[in-house]
Every structure is written in C-alpha cells, then in structure tokens.
Amino acid sequence: MSDISVSGQxxxxxxYIGLGILxxxxxIAVGVFLKQSHYNPAIFLGSAPRSGNAATSTLDxxxxxxxxxxxxxxxxxxxxxFGPENLSDKINGKAELYLSAGFLSLLSQxxxxxxxxxxxxEVLVYDMGTIRRAFAVYSIQRRLDAENVxxxxxxxxxxxxxxxxxGRYYVEVIAAVTTGKMGEAMQxxxxxxMKKTGVSEERIDELTLFPREHxxxxxxxxxxxxxxxxxxxxxxxxxxxxLEDTELTAFLSLRETSSEASGLVAAxxxxxxxxGGVDVKxxxxxxxxxLVEILDTFELIFSRxxxxxxxxxxxxxxxxxxxxxxxxxxxxGARP
Amino acid sequence: xxxxxxxxxxxxxxxxxxxxxxxxxxxxxxxxxDPSQNGDVLVTLxxxxxxxxxxxxxxxxxxxRVGTVDRALKVMGGIELFxxxxxxxxxxxxxxxxxxxxxxxxxxxxxLAEVARLCFKAGxxxxxxxxxxxxxxxxxxxxxxIAQAAESVGGRVLLPKEGFxxxxxxxxxxLIMKWPLLYAPFKDINKVIGIxxxxxxxxxxxxxxxxxxxxxxxxxxxxxxxxxxNTIKELAMMVTPTLVILDGTTTMMTxxxxxxxxxxxxxxxxxxxxxxxxxxxxxGATLLGKTVAQLPYISKAEASGVxxxxxxxxxxxxxxxx
Lengths: 336, 322
Known about the structure:
The complex is a heterodimer of chains A (336) and B (322).
Chain A: H1 12-37, E1 50-51, H2 63-69, E2 73-75, E3 80-82, H3 87-91, H4 95-99, E4 105-113, E5 116-127, H5 131-140, E6 147-148, E7 154-157, E8 161-166, E9 169-175, H6 180-197, E10 215-223, E11 236-242, E12 247-254, H7 258-274, E13 278-279, E14 290-294, E15 297-304, E16 307-314, H8 317-332
Antiparallel strand pairs in A: 1-3, 2-4, 3-4, 4-5, 5-9, 6-7, 7-8, 8-9, 10-11, 11-12, 12-16, 13-14, 14-15, 15-16
Chain B: H1 3-27, E1 57-61, H2 65-75, E2 88-93, H3 109-121, E3 126-130, H4 137-143, H5 146-152, E4 156-158, E5 165-168, E6 179-182, E7 191-201, E8 205-207, H6 228-238, E9 243-252, E10 265-274, H7 277-287, H8 296-303, E11 317-320
Parallel strand pairs in B: 1-11, 2-3, 2-7, 3-4, 7-9
Antiparallel strand pairs in B: 1-10, 5-6, 7-8, 9-10
C-alpha cells in the first residue's frame, strides 16, 4: 500500500509498470505491422481441408466411421472434411449447386478393397441439414436411365456408382471399377451407413401431390432457389409428364400463407411480362390464374390455398390448361 | 486537481488521440496488400504460339484417342511443325480431381502419353506435365493415371508447391490481377500444349480448352466462379499456347465438372487439335449439344482478339480414323 501515490504524482513503481505496458503495446503493434505486411490474400489459405474429426464437423460421423462402415476395405486416403468455405477445393465448379441448397459439410474418403488397391471407391457424405435440401441436390443430379434401388425412398445406382439421400445426408459412392464385388461393397457400405446414422426416413409431402397419371416419378426435382430465373421463387418442386403428343412440366410450392402464395403468383406474372411475356386469354376459370405466352411456350400459374402451382414452358396451350385443372383438383384435396 | 491542471491534461489527451489517428491514417493502405511487395515481381507468360501457324485446326473422328490425335496432328502438318529439336515443352493437363480415367473428368492418360511421346519424337529435350488441383495434388496425378502416363514416356510431372507461384496481372484484364500463377514449371519452357477433355460445367456451361488454364491459378481462386465467363475469357488472354488438344472422345454431358457416374458420359468420338483455342471450344460446344450463344465466354474471348468463334472460317481439316 505504501507504493500507491496519494499526492496525484505517480510513484516510481507506477511509472515503470506504465512504461512496461506501453512497451508491450508497441511490441504488439510492431508485430501486427510486420505480419500484415507479409499477408497475401490470394495465397493465404485459411480453409485448407482438415483431417477427419467429428468435433470440427457438423456430421454425426467422423472419418474413422467411414472405414468402419466399409467391410473388407482399407483406407486409400485419409478422411477429409470440407465446409462451405472450401468445398470448391474438392468439387470445383459444382460447389455452387450445394452451397445454394444450404450445404453444411462434406466428409469424404477413398477406400480400397483389401489386397487390391486398384479396386477403390470414394465415399462422399454431404450433410445438407434437412431431408429437403438433401433431396434437392439428389434430385437435380439424378442420372437418366438410372436403376432405382430399394435402399431409401431416394436411391439409385449406375454402372459404377450409388447415390442416395438419407435424412439430412446426400451420399455418393463412386467406384473406380465396375466389378460385382465392388457393387456389393457399395451396397454393404450404404446399409451400414444408414444403420449407423440412425436417421429416420422422413416424408416429403409435396411429392405425393402431383397428379399420378402420365407422371415420370423419377423426374421430380426440388429447386431450392431462383426457380425459372426468378429470385423470389424458391422451394419449388417440378415434375415432368409424358402426354400423348407432348411433354409437360408441372410445378408446385408450399408457401407460409395463402396470401403469400397469391402474392407470389402476381410477382412471378410481373416477372414474366417484364421479360417479354404476353398475357393470353385462358379458358380456365381459376380466380387469379395467369396464362402467359413467352418464347413460344405457355406459362400457367395459379394459387390454391397455401400452394403456388402451375405449368411451365408448355408447348400446347390447351394441354397446359387441361393439366392445370387436374393439378388444381389434386391440390384442393391436400392439407398443407 | 486545479482547473489549470485539468485543462493541461485534456489538451495532452487530445494531442495523443490526434497523433494516434494521424498515425493510423498514415499507415492505412486503401488498396490492400500487393503481392509484389513481398519481393515477388509481377510476371506474365510469354506468347508460345508459332508465327504463321495461327488459325489452324483439325477435327478427327474415331474411337481410339491415340489414333485420332496422331491423325489430327498429321493432317495439320505433323507434330514437327509445332515442336522442334531441343524444344522444352509444357503439357497443361486437367488433373483437377482424384478420379479414375474412366470417368473422363480429367485428361486421359493414354492421350497424354501419346502427345508426350510425339513431342520427344519430334526432338523435344524435355516435356513437363503440370496442373494445380488444389486438393491433394499427388492423389489427383496418381489416381487419374496422369503421373504414370507421363513418366512412362520420359515426361516430368511437376506438382504445385507454394514456391512455384508468382503474382501475375493479365494485360487489359479486370479480374486476374496480382494473382498467384503457377509459374515455376514454365521456367525455360518455349512450347505449351493444353490437353483437356470436353465436359459439362455447372457454372460456366462447359469446361474445355480455355477453362483448362484455370488450373494455373493459385490462391482462393473459387471467387472467380462468381464471374466465370469473364474469368475464362481472361484465362484465354493469359495463355497463348502453341496448341490445344480438346479430347471429345468421351464427353461428360451432365453433372460436370466432377461427374462421377458413367451415366454422365457419352461417346462422341472426336479429337480436336487447334492453334486457336476459341475455335476449338466453339466446336467442342457442339459435342455438348450447346451453341456458342449458350457459352458466353466464347464470344467474349473472340471479342478480346484471342481467336475465332466461327470455326468454319478457319477451314478446319476433317478426317476420320475409321
């Protein structure tokens, strides 16, 4: 207590402490100055892939888990985890597809069959956060003529690969060879993965709302954002129909309220008109429905309760109107 | 404390604040760090084209890449027209992903080996093979078969290392400025050949000869995807190659640039060799079922004077290996 000044003048101890603090601050400032002088924003990589570690991932799985799930296989590479900031390091220009759908993280690893390093596969587990987002990236990448498999509600395989959505996860298992043994290994991995994650299958109700007649069930996709180039149109399900002499695309989107749905119809109609569309007189009697001719095709949009729905880029006006009627009747019976 | 002492202390505090603010203002750098301040001089790639050989192109159909690339070069006058004795050749491949060759997401190893072999046959003293796949380059070069293919014919694979990059600014560019370029592999090189597969691309619509130069960039290059068409145009302005070889034997029609399934591929059985990278991409677009208008970077590159989008104007030589 004797060192504390009561006269208003600092004691020697106080002066030395003060000078020490000032010197430390100057040292820090010089350090920061020197360090930032050598900082190169282009070369600096603050987003390098990390090694598998559940603590740094939003996944319930760790890198160690992947190899545990692959019976008879050994690691060909260490597990890697990528986040939104560095996903493009792994998949380059395709990253935007996942990022726009709400991507959270990716866990990937290459695994080879024991004693046969040329027989390898890469597992990519995308955590999309929700079944809807997982379905969005699954559906938009679905390969034509792929073979559906009864793994989950959303699963198919091709000659060398297996793709499925399971709960919040979208999973790709891509093999470097097309042997039967590798096919079995991929299936085995998928079954173990589903068991391990313990995610329950969730329904996506909108998928059941499209009229069944002439529906190409595998064509249904979910556009999370910017549907048809309109930035306000999000969470839109699309489905293709093969009618007798034409093909047709239907769409629907569940909104928060019926007024939001009808407001979005008006906004999308305005968007079409601003981009060269022309209003066309329609035979249909739905209140608020709009029929627009644009680029030699017809766009028919309407709302029904909380649903916004319609027919996209139809070549035939009559078919568009007839189908819109069927879609409206289906939605009338739906309970959002 | 007296009033006089209070005023003096207030003035001192104010002076300290003013001095701190002045110092901060003096130190503030509104333009951000400049790579050249680190001792790295800005570099640009020289022109690797051969005078008098601009606007040459051949399109050869056939299933076998070795046969089609041989024929494509032969009808253009032979590899000897482009590679002379003692030349140091750099082959820029697409090794972006650690995927097997059968997925056609990367340069085909057999094609690479044949081109390298032809370069040596023409008298090249060295053939360097390089690319900058950001994630795990060693695996990318190995699992694609590119490393083994290059080494099997005496080529030298140069994997990217931090010290290999130098900042570059593409003349007249607005995007690629003071950006790290994979420069060290170009040391002593006097001929550059790009070898790329024809692929769909989620952002740009296509990944072909011009997009292939993207693999020469370092840093956080993914920001360029925000303006991908102008970026590809500037990539084409950045590299004036001796030749480009666009492999449309198997085209990735969907889910590019990664693909992943054989279902993404279609046999299009076409090899394109050209000294005009814009013309090569314009023809490559047709293999993807796309038009030049659907790939804006092609017209942008043409407008920048890089090449010709209407490839028929340069009278491509067509042939078939049967």
